[in-house]
Hints:
By secondary structure, this protein is of the alpha+beta class. It has nine helices and 15 strands. It has three domains: about 1-85, Rossmann fold, CATH 3.40.50.20; about 110-175, ATP-grasp fold, A domain (Dna Ligase, domain 1), CATH 3.30.1490; about 180-290, D-amino Acid Aminotransferase, Chain A, domain 1 (2-Layer Sandwich), CATH 3.30.470.20. The longest helix has 16 residues, at about 15-30. Magnesium ion binds near residues 244 and 257. Magnesium ion (MG) binds near residues 244 and 257.
Amino acid sequence: MKVLIAVNAYMKNKSQIAQSERIAEELTARGALAEIKKNFNLAEIENSSVKAEKYGFCVFLDKDKVAARLLEKSGLRLFNSAAAVEVCDDKMLTNIALANGGFNIPDCVYAPLCYHGDSNINEEFLHGTVQKLKFPLVAKTNYGSLGAGVVLIKNFNELANYEKKNLTAPHFYQKFIDCGCGEDIRVIVIGGKAVCAMKRRNLTDFRSNIELGGKGENYCLTPKLASLCEGVAESLKLDYCGVDILTDKNGEFYVCEVNSNAFFAAAERVCGINIAGRYAEYMLNKINSI
Ligand SMILES: Nc1ncnc2c1ncn2[C@@H]1O[C@H](COP(=O)(O)OP(=O)(O)O)[C@@H](O)[C@H]1O
Ligand SMILES: [Mg+2]
């Protein structure tokens, strides 16, 4: 079976390249013909319908929602689906999707959209936000990964500066879940099953991302943690994901974010699990059972 692995058209991050190659390797080991392709011209609208080359399925390693929807409309099964990728790409849409679902998520205040960069910041909105979330609070752009769009804000001056700088970028503010240092648990879920957990800790930054110096270690996947993350994946209809979990000082779990294209190299290394192999197996079984 021919399998398309779609990667971003401008991909240059080494981890992204390695991710696609590992999945290709494990699909090939199971008899598939895996083709890694940059995500441009893979599907087009022609004579009023969407045309694309035929594949058994597509491993969609990009976040480009338009490309995902085009490929899906051509009849291709995407792992993950276009809708799931879209919801996970936008952290606030993820929070909205999970809210009312029985999952603990940190309190969030969404910043109203502003279309004019020269507008004054809305101080009434900022004061209301501080009243709800207190300092320190966390600011996040809706789109962002590897910790890049996440900032800890300690006072009103920092908040006003952040708001001014990000006025026209979709963003939101979130309650800071204090656990003493930059720490979270990354849980990988494949086909509805949590397969491993990695604790990430950074002693010099409140963000635990490996790319910012966080150190990963194998973490015990308790039934409570596994069922929380499996519930999250099911609720967002994800075939594969990495769920980031924060733990407060009382040991309470909070869903921080959900990554539809979570890098797995560090988790494979520290947990000793063949994540790419399990994902390849899951996708092939799923397609062969249709
Ligand atoms: N509300 C929060 N309270 C405490 N720490 C947080 C909070 N949100 C994020 N962090 C820290 O910042 C890191 C990056 O945030 P995250 O939302 O996962 O963004 P990214 O997509 O950039 O990884 C998290 O892994 C966690 O260590
Ligand atoms: Mg994260």
